[in-house]
Amino acid sequence: MIHEVDEVLKNLLSGGALAGSGIDVALDAPTRDWAARRNAPTINAYLYDIREDVARRQRGHLPIHDERDIVVKHRQPPRWFRLSYLVTAWTKQPQDEHRLLSAVLATLIPRELIGPSELPGSLGALGMTIPMSVAGTQTESRSLAEIWSALGGELKPSLDLVITAPFPAYPEYDAGPPVTEGVAVRVRTVDVTPPPEERAHSARQVAAAQEAREARRTARRGRGLDRRT
């Protein structure tokens, strides 16, 4: 996901007010060694901080549709991450650097949102719009002075650019088969006739009961107890 955001940012910085200018766009750490090797006007966008935007975290699942708009899978909602870039301009003259930073502002300020059609790879597949802010209030724990100190360079005018991008969550779960017919009510008659095996069992019980009564009757006649003829 991060490399895809890098690609989007490079395309943005190469267009807009800077389109056709031939200005290089780099993502390197702007250290002293890098600055010494630079030999052309350059816009540098250095990714210095990555952290989750927990306010955007969601629960549940999202449906995945096929080309027929049928839900075929479910997946967990993506996690959103704030990617913070330090944007600087590098030329031989401070006035030229300020002009480049002005061109960067003119290019990025109107672009508060980046649509799915402009996003490559897995970002575009999510079909989501991602927000972008430039030169806003810095919310990261490290100050820009600390960042420059860590890079071993001198403090330069810079723009703080934040792109909040979704990171796809895995795994995906297969959905059940789609419903192809409406609700139907079916009525059938109830067969009250017992099955043959139940009828045979009942007949044997009746016959056994009759035999038992006859045997008792015979026994009583033999003892002179049964007065019925």
Please characterize this protein's 3D structure.
With 229 residues, the protein is of the alpha+beta class. It has two domains: 2-174, no CATH class; 194-229. It contains six helices and nine strands; from the N terminus they run αβαββββαβαβαββα. It has helices at 2-14, 32-37, 94-108, 121-126, 144-151, 196-222, and strands spanning 24-26, 42-52, 62-65, 71-75, 79-90, 113-114, 130-134, 159-167, 172-174. The longest helix has 27 residues, at 196-222. Strands 1-2-5-8-7-6 form a six-stranded mixed sheet. Strands 3-4-9 form a three-stranded antiparallel sheet, with no helix packed on it. The protein starts with a helix and ends in a 7-residue tail after the last helix. Helix 2 links the parallel strand 1 and strand 2 (42-52). The model has no long low-confidence stretch (mean pLDDT 80). InterPro entries: Pvc16_N. Residues 4-181 form the Pvc16 N-terminal domain. This is Pvc16 N-terminal domain-containing protein.
